[in-house]
Amino acid sequence: MTKYTNKCYCGNSLPYEECCQRIHLNQQKALSSEQLMRARYSAFVVQNIDFLYNSFHPTTRNFQDKKEIEMWAKESKWMQLHILTSTTSVVEFEAHYLDTQLNLQIHHERSNFKQIKGVWYYVDGELIA
Q: Taking Cα atoms as reference points, which of 21, 20, 12, 15 lies closest to residue 3?
């Protein structure tokens, strides 16, 4: 008998526990910028604010407001993630979510990532209209 498993929030076929949760528990397990991007999306879904904050690159982390990150994560109903393009250090994606008025929103961003001592970090992103 086949065990039923739900897909991870990031869209991969593995269950959350075998996919993004592993990275949430140990950021070093993200082997690429895309894996970190997927884990960051899943962190919004499960409201893992510490992971979101800590996965910012050290040079940009101090400019982040944990309360604002938490508010956006909690006020939004995260629907799905689409990775449009992915290179070694840039990931373009669309994150679909419902806002507080239950209007569908699409956060389209081209994100930049850097690695420090084998650990991937989110540096910044450009919103795409």
A: 15
